Amino acid sequence: MNKARLRSFYKAKRKELSNQQIEEWSLQIANQSLQLPIWEKEFYHLFLPIEKQNEVNTEFLLHILQGKDKNVVISKSNFKDLSLEHILLTDATEIKLNAFGIPEPQKGIEIQPQQLDVVFIPLLVSDKEGNRIGYGKGFYDRFLSKCKADVQKVGLSFFEPVDEIIEVSTTDINLDYLVTPSEIFQFKA
């Protein structure tokens, strides 16, 4: 299936989820993530969910990261150039919803992409090769291209990977792992 059809199908499928299902599956995803070989790292980039899009609730992962005393980094979107600014999350970080319903830090200590060790990535669906589909603006592909080569890219999804995504671009950056409520998929050795 091509990207546009998959994007439309999985947006609709996610919209059908109840709040209770989202919470349960998000907790299961956080618990599954504890099996990943990523917890000795220092800087973790975490997305804050867009509630109206029924994204994975990353609050559970945030608690795990804070409990392990990790540095958590969150993003602020620039829709003019489709880039992300990365801010260290602290007790003083003020978070507000932007015009698109994305929770974002207002200001803070900027962290460069090269400093990040692990990036948790929002997505609609991936395939069995680690290709992923988001909302189609390319924010994460541009961001990940600036990270160090060994950054761990962890997708979070309510859904199992599909067999194949057609129309993969040379600028698309694959996942290393996909965490679903019931399983972890590893794409690179």
Record keyword descriptors for this entry.
189 residues; alpha/beta; Rossmann fold; 11 strands; 7-stranded mixed β-sheet; globular
What features would you describe in this structure?
- The chain has 189 residues and is α/β, with parallel strands linked by helices.
- It has one domain: NagB/RpiA/CoA transferase-like (Rossmann fold), CATH 3.40.50.10420.
- Strands 3-2-1-6-9-10-11 form a seven-stranded mixed beta sheet.
- It is globular and about 45 Å long.
- The two termini are 26 Å apart.
Give the CATH class: Alpha Beta
Strand content: 15-25%
Secondary-structure element string: HHEHEEEEEEEHEEE
pLDDT below 50 for ≥5 consecutive residues: which ranges? none
User: In CATH terms, what is the fold-level topology?
Assistant: Rossmann fold
By CATH, the architecture is named 3-Layer(aba) Sandwich
Radius of gyration: 15 Å
What kind of sheet is the major sheet?
A: 7 strands, mixed
Strand order in the sheet with the most strands: 3-2-1-6-9-10-11
Rounded to the nearest angstrom, the distance between the terminal CA atoms is: 26 Å
Task: Give the integer mean of the pLDDT values.
Answer: 94
Number of domains: 1
Q: Going by CATH, what is the homologous superfamily? A: NagB/RpiA/CoA transferase-like
- Strand tally: 11
Count of individual helical segments:
4
The general outline is globular
Classification by helices and strands: alpha/beta
Proportion in helices? 10-25%
Enzyme class: ligase
Cofactor: Mg(2+)
Catalytic activity: (6S)-5-formyl-5,6,7,8-tetrahydrofolate + ATP = (6R)-5,10-methenyltetrahydrofolate + ADP + phosphate
Protein name: 5-formyltetrahydrofolate cyclo-ligase
